[in-house]
Design goal:
By secondary structure, the protein is α/β, with parallel strands linked by helices. It has 7 helices and 7 strands; from the N terminus they run αβαβαββαβααβαβ.
Length: 230
Amino acid sequence: MNIEIQPSRYDFSTLAEGYDSWYLSREGKLYDKFEKTGMMKYLPAQSDNKTLLDVGCGTGHWSEFFSECGFTVTGLDVSRRMIDVAQSKSNKDITYFVGDAHKLPFPDGAFDVAAAITTIEFTRNPAGVIREMVRCTQKPGGRILIGVLNCCARINRERRNKGIQPYVDAWLLSPHQLRNMLEPYGKPEITTTGFMPKLTWLHLLAHLCNSVGRFFHLPTGALVLGKVQL
């Protein structure tokens, strides 16, 4: 007897309507800028006319970013409410689907790039999701982009210790763990970003703090970024 496995460790539908409010806060804007600046280094030099699959796209925040970078974007999320929000706010040419990241509804090699930003750590089988992303990406020459919440980062540990959702239900990963998950598919490039002073009144120094953390390749940024060329 086959038992259906729930694809997500947390039901993000409950957060759909208010999810984007984080990005409007001062702290959220800083983290968002740092994360996207870090991701830019892993994008192809020429993105125009390239196709990108955004796995676990949620409300489309990163889908819109990838679209602005020139990709033709397809977003997929298991939550219908998240997809509804993404479709309602988007004025870009992005196609959205409701679907399970463990069983992507796309043919082999359908995309030039497959990305998953703060997605795999909330799935039941992160390695299986990456395997599906690889299947749907062109070989050779395709690219896998992953962003995961860092278990080595103070802010993520504090959120878990305080019982804050959805962090309690996340598989927080280290840079080393993400590298190990990507190595079967090529030589991964791994970095972290999102270095922020602990005290709010020191946030004026956030850009300096993040630059120092990135320059010295510290492993404690809030987000681990990984890229592998297929």
